[in-house]
């Protein structure tokens, strides 16, 4: 039997946080052993909010080098840049004709992101439809993403079902694959809010590429509470978040993390959390800086990835065009 297909993407909308790492990126490499994986850098998603062109270009190549530094292997997976495979937009447009504006208006991420914009762009509203196209183009069964993306995966299933029943069986229905620990890492400054790379307050997040001293400083400033006792409780969201981060980096459960810190104070908790993050990220940072210098090698990887992704995408799109009633092009 053919291996199942895994699909995921990350936006080059800034330098990645440990939220992106725990929720998504850190889980990608091991999936390569069991599945056929496609890992995309979703630059077209990134421009749904304003970007500085030169920064976007830099962030895109940074993200490619980071994928590789985190163990993604172009021999095992298809690694590519979304804008290099125009089939995403082509399918996205068709799917836009199968989803109501009301349903898109109800997406939580849209509401959150729209609030922060001076002018809300139509692309931001349509973001989840492009995401559905990303996944459905490759007939992916599993999508490793953080908990914040659950609603978008449900919408993807909904759109696929609608298409399948309106025309005929075409798309595989994907399932979310969220990590057991750290599926929603919270801001270090406002633990009621998710950690985001585009947060205005840099103390709210830790970047994968932050140096050791910055990590220690940001963790030491993390908001806790005045209880003084370490518990894993929603009443202590700051402490709970630190326990989750520790558990994710140590690859243990939140309960085990709690047992480890029983009877210790917040200073000890913060110190150990920081050291645990540093121990895992240091070798990744070293590999990243090496890989990032070799522009030709990066170019060879994204070009090859785009060709392989395009070949798969065209197969699906050809079917879709025929079913919709377009005169065939391919
Ligand atoms: N705080 C988080 N905890 C766990 N997982 C997270 N992810 C994002 N934040 C957390 C997961 O990271 C992957 C890539 O996300 P993305 O860049 O495609 O978009 P996002 O979810 O909008 O991430 P950010 O960091 O919040 O970006 P900005 O600030 O640009 O909007 C996804 O799998 C996501 O679930």
Task: Indicate the mean pLDDT.
Answer: 96
Report the sheet with the most strands, covering strand number, pairing sense and barrel closure: 3 strands, parallel
How many helices? The count is 13
**SSE order, one letter for each helix or strand:** EHEHHEHHHHEHEHHHHH
Distance between the termini: 28 Å
What form results from the Cα inertia axes?
globular
Small molecules bound in the structure, each named once: adenosine-5'-tetraphosphate
Structural class estimated from helices and strands: mainly alpha
- Strand content range: 5-15%
| Total strands | 5
Low-confidence stretches: none
Q: In which range does the helix fraction lie?
A: 40-55%
**Spatial strand sequence of the major β-sheet:** 1-2-3
| Rg result | 20 Å
Textual characterization of the structure:
With 330 residues, the protein is mainly α. It contains 13 helices and five strands. Helix 1 links the parallel strand 1 (5-10) and strand 2. Helix 4 crosses helix 7 (122-137). Adenosine-5'-tetraphosphate is lined by residues 10-11, 13-14, 17, 19-20, 22-24, 145-146, 148-149, 183-185, 194-198.
